[in-house]
Design goal:
With 684 residues, the protein is mainly α. Helix content is 70%, strand content 3%. Strands 2-1-4-3 form a four-stranded mixed sheet.
């Protein structure tokens, strides 16, 4: 009985009484001379063996099915907290949910196994053979036995819950090192991100706290599935008992504030990045425009690029991981965003510099290519010689300033490359070839100059010969102008316009020759020949061109007015008046010498007549004009008009020569207005 726990003795009472009954004869009845001592001993030994076997079975069940499971239950952790691994927010939620479900299922199995084991113990005690079947095990003792082991199960579950909470508190506490080194791996992986307009954690501290709270709640909920068996007046499940435990409540409250302790440290760490806030809070375009208003020098641009390059270097040096308590802050997303913002600022300030550099580079490269093409021009006539001499002079003028052109381009591209601004590969190659390209062009210019020197004598003789011929041509052209040109007296203006166009084209050809021969004479150091006939003709062409251009414009414009339907004339009258007044002003500004020309007289008359007709147009377009009034107009002019809106045009009215009947028409329109006024009064 030494192996039997006290809690079993009330259950074994009938068996112990049975055994006492078997022992009693030997103590009170039998003596050494009794004849039935052997039977007594046999009965005693048999009963004792049965009792020992019963006790052995009971101890075996309790040790292997009850105590072992109770130990396993209290050692069970309801949260997975590996010390060598960090979790992201999503991984933590998912991993804990799976682990807690698995552990809760194991607890359910062990709880039911202990309950069955206790029932098996009770059944074994009740069914074990004995010689006093009339003595029964008291039901009260059975209930107390069940309640005892149910309490042990409760304590085991409580221990498992408390150990789980303690493990969470220890793992989520702030005892790990702060910085890039750590004694125990931080539990949560958290991204530090730029979420405009500030820097934030992903997930947030509130989100992490919520995950911790939900895990703590799940630890408690694990006992919800555990049936509370055997307790006298006990609840349906152990959760009701666990949730009321003061230590459990205290642990839950501590865990709900587990992240609160590191909020200040996190905020202090994030404040280190405030110095970069201007990258996203300030208006990049406005800052850049203010900078450009200062007319910055190359050194000013370099200062800005250097500043943003230093910022990029600083950002690159930020540790990729920083640990605070249970948090492992990953700064890679933030570094990427900051580098992108800094690159945008650097690119903005480099853009103008690069654009200017690229523009200067391409302009110089285009100059080299174009000038090379010009210098390779084949020399066939005097025009070619003059052209090449002009190009050679340009090259000589450029040579004095070549360093001032190339050096800034090289300096700007060197600056861009030094501060890691992206430059097209093609441009870097062009920069490398700048001085070599100029050297080649300079040699080509020297060769071209030498070639012109050899050809000079022949072209000079040819020039003198051509100038003599051109003097005679100029005189002949002048004679043709005077005889057949637009200034011949009595010409119809339109015929004069046609002749002017013809002679303008002929003069342009001679004008080019005139310029070429004059520049050639300057080139070879000869006296420049004058052409008085061409000079006079040029003045007259300029004068006539102004006159006839205005003449043609006035004729075509007023003719265009005639194409308008009469219904549209009212809203156009003011616009036409302004336009024709402008023509009148231009006409008055023509040279006095042109005012005797028929074209001038006709142009002036057309303008004046149209301006005089405008008031008549307005009067005739008045709403008071009825069909009877139009018939009076037709009777006055002696011509018929089709008054339908889709037929009647202004030109039909112009064809009536209404100025000849101005007074009569004014009387008709005045009468129409008065009649309308009378009709209005009578109608009122």
């Amino acid at each position: 009985m030494a192996h039997v726990q006290p809690i079993f003795k009330p259950l074994l009472k009938p068996h112990l009484e049975d055994m006492e009954t078997k022992v009693a004869p030997g103590m009170f009845i039998l003596t050494w001379t009794s004849m039935n001592i052997d039977g007594y001993l046999h009965r005693f030994k048999q009963g004792l063996a049965r009792l020992k076997e019963l006790v052995r079975k009971l101890v075996d069940i309790v040790d292997n099915r009850v105590v072992a499971n109770l130990d396993a239950v209290q050692k069970t952790l309801l949260v997975e907290l590996p010390g060598d691994r960090s979790f992201s927010y999503e991984e933590f939620i998912t991993a804990q949910a799976k682990f807690q479900k698995r552990q809760a299922d194991q607890l359910t199995i062990r709880n039911e196994e202990v309950a069955r084991a206790i029932e098996d113990v009770i059944m074994l005690v009740q069914t074990a053979p004995r010689e006093n079947p009339d003595v029964a095990v008291e039901e009260k003792e059975v209930d107390l036995f069940r309640s005892y082991y149910s309490s042990l199960m409760y304590r085991s579950i409580l221990t498992a819950t408390q150990r789980s909470f303690a493990a969470m508190k220890r793992r989520l506490g702030s005892k790990t090192a702060t910085g890039i080194f750590y004694m125990e791996r931080p539990f949560f992986d958290v991204d530090v991100e730029l979420k405009l307009p500030s820097i934030a954690l992903n997930p947030t501290l509130d989100g992490i706290q919520e995950a911790v709270n939900s895990t703590a709640k799940a630890i408690l909920q694990a006992s919800h599935k555990l049936r509370c068996w055997g307790m006298i007046n006990g609840p349906p499940c152990y959760y009701d008992l666990i949730a009321r435990d003061k230590e459990v409540v205290k642990s839950v409250l501590l865990l709900t504030g587990s992240v609160e302790g590191i909020k200040h440290q996190v905020a202090e760490y994030l404040s280190n990045f405030d110095k970069y806030s201007f990258l996203w809070t300030q208006n990049l375009q406005a800052t850049y425009e203010a900078f450009m208003k200062t007319n910055p020098s190359l050194e000013a641009f370099e200062g800005e690029l250097k500043k943003y390059m230093a910022i990029e270097t600083e950002i690159a040096a930020i540790p990729s991981v920083y640990n605070i308590g249970s948090l492992s802050l990953t700064t890679l997303p933030l570094k990427t965003s900051l580098k992108s913002e800094a690159a945008s600022w650097k690119a903005q300030f480099a853009q103008n510099l690069h654009s200017q550099s690229a523009e200067d580079l391409k302009a110089f490269d285009a100059y080299i290519r174009d000038t090379t093409l010009k210098l390779n021009r084949k020399v066939e006539d005097l025009e070619d010689v003059r052209y090449l001499v002009t190009v050679l002079n340009e090259v000589r003028e450029r040579e004095a300033d070549i360093d001032a052109l190339i050096a800034p381009i090289e300096d700007m591209y060197s600056l861009l490359l030094r501060y890691e601004v992206r430059v097209p590969k093609e441009e870097t190659g062009m920069v490398s070839d700048l001085r070599y390209g100029w050297k080649k062009l300079r040699k080509l210019a020297t060769d071209t100059s030498d070639n012109l020197a050899r050809l000079q004598a022949g072209f000079k003789r040819e020039l003198i010969k051509e100038v003599k011929a051109f003097v005679q041509d100029a005189q002949a052209f002048r004679h043709d102008w005077e005889v057949n040109g637009p200034m011949v007296p009595g010409l119809d203006p339109m015929e004069a316009v046609d002749r002017l166009k013809k002679f303008q084209q002929m003069f342009e050809v001679r004008k080019r020759k005139w310029e070429n021969y004059s520049s050639g004479e300057e080139l070879f150091g000869l006296p420049v020949t004058s052409y008085p006939e061409l000079e006079q003709t040029e003045k007259e062409i300029s004068m006539l061109d102004r006159l006839y251009t205005l003449y043609v414009t006035v004729i075509s414009t007023i003719k265009g007015y005639g194409d308008y339907f009469w219904a549209d004339v009212v809203e156009k009258v003011d616009e036409w008046g302004e336009q024709v007044l402008q023509y009148q002003a231009q006409c008055k500004k023509l040279p006095k010498a042109s005012r005797d020309w028929p074209a001038y007289v006709k142009c002036r008359d057309i303008i004046d007549n149209f301006l005089e007709m405008l008031p008549l147009f307005q009067a005739l377009a008045h709403k008071a004009m009825r069909e009877r009034h139009w018939k009076a107009v037709m009777q006055t002019t002696g011509k018929e008009l089709q008054l339908a809106e889709d037929v009647f045009k202004l030109q039909h009215l112009l064809d009536l020569n209404i100025l000849q009947h101005k007074e009569e028409i004014e009387e008709i329109t005045t009468a129409a207005v008065k009649e309308e006024q009378i009709e209005t009064k009578l109608g009122g």
